[in-house]
Specification:
The protein has two domains: 2-95, Rossmann fold (3-Layer(aba) Sandwich); 98-131, no CATH class. The chain is built from six helices and four strands. It has a four-stranded parallel beta sheet with strand order 3-2-1-4, sandwiched between helices. α3 (73-80) packs antiparallel against α4. The chain is elongated and about 55 Å long. The chain has 138 residues and is α/β, with parallel strands linked by helices. β1, α1 (10-19) and β2 (25-30) form a beta-alpha-beta unit. It has helices at 10-19, 51-58, 73-80, 89-95, 98-107, 121-131; strands at residues 2-6, 25-30, 42-45, 63-66.
Length: 138
C-alpha cells in the first residue's frame, strides 16, 4: 500500500518508520526536499496549496493522511475526492479552530477546561469570573 502523507516532518517520518516493516510505502508532500521524512519515502516537493504538486502527490497513492493540523482544508478536500483520507477533512477543520475543537470534545463527552470565546476585553472581563484567570488568548 502506498500511503500519502501531507507534511514531511518528524511525525511523518515516525509514521513511515512504523509502517515500512508492515510492508507499506510512503510518499510525502512537503515544500522542503530535505524534510525529515525524505530519508524514508518519496517526497513530492511543493507548497501544500500548489495544485500541480498536489496532483503529483495524489497520483497512485492508496490512502492519504496529514501529519499536522495546519494543512489547508482545501488541500485535504481535493485529496479526499481522489482517495480515502483519514482522519477526515472535518476532523482537520475542527482541529484548526480551538473553540470548535473544544465544543466538539464536549459534544463527545470529553472533559475540557472551562473556556469561552471572546473577541473583546469587555467580553473577557464578563467571563473571567466564570472561567478563572489567568486566561489565554487563542
Amino acid at each position: 500500500m502506498l500511503v500519502g502523507v501531507v507534511g514531511g516532518g518528524q511525525l511523518g517520518r515516525m509514521l513511515a518508520l512504523a509502517g515500512i516493516p508492515l510492508g507499506h510505502s510512503f510518499r510525502f508532500l512537503d515544500p522542503d526536499p530535505r524534510c525529515p521524512a525524505s530519508a524514508v519515502g518519496e517526497v513530492i516537493v511543493g507548497d501544500f496549496d500548489n495544485h500541480a504538486a498536489v496532483a503529483r502527490f495524489v497520483a497512485g497513492i492508496d490512502v492519504a493522511t496529514f501529519e499536522f493540523e495546519n494543512v489547508p482544508v482545501s488541500t485535504m478536500s481535493a485529496i479526499a475526492e481522489r482517495v480515502p483520507t483519514a482522519p477526515g477533512v472535518r476532523s482537520l477543520a475542527i482541529a484548526q479552530d480551538r473553540i470548535s475543537e473544544k465544543e466538539f470534545f464536549q459534544s463527545c463527552g470529553i472533559a475540557v477546561q472551562p473556556f469561552a470565546a471572546v473577541n473583546t476585553e469587555a467580553e473577557l472581563a464578563a467571563v473571567s469570573g466564570r472561567i478563572g484567570v489567568p486566561a489565554r488568548q487563542c
